[in-house]
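hey so u asked for the seq, here:
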Amino acid sequence: MLLYDIKSILDAEVLSGETEVDLKNKDIHTACGCDLMSDVLAFVKDQSLLLTGLINAQVVRTAEMMDIVAICFVRGKAPSDDVIALAKDAGITILSTKQPLYLACGMLYDGGLRGLRNG
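ran it, structure tokens below
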């Protein structure tokens, strides 16, 4: 699924400055809704979208280690300018949606984006 489609499904705001063309060129293979960065490190694969309520720099650092393409902050949360700058430097798109985590994940699943399966 294109990041452009994810933005539309979640009615999300782009916080990191990408254009619509940029969003149409980023393909997302899976999504993960998680606030535990240790679980992200254990289970997330590359080309993923991370949905989370955490807005600190550790989220971006974890995403960078796991080759996560984009982070979507839920419940209307927005990180500080320092966190956004860190994501820009890492090439990670930052989105924010007013949806809660559970609903955002369900909306993306209904739209055709799948999560990871263990085993």
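The chain is about 40% helix and 15% strand. The CA atoms of residues 32 and 44 lie 7 Å apart.
lmk if thats what u needed
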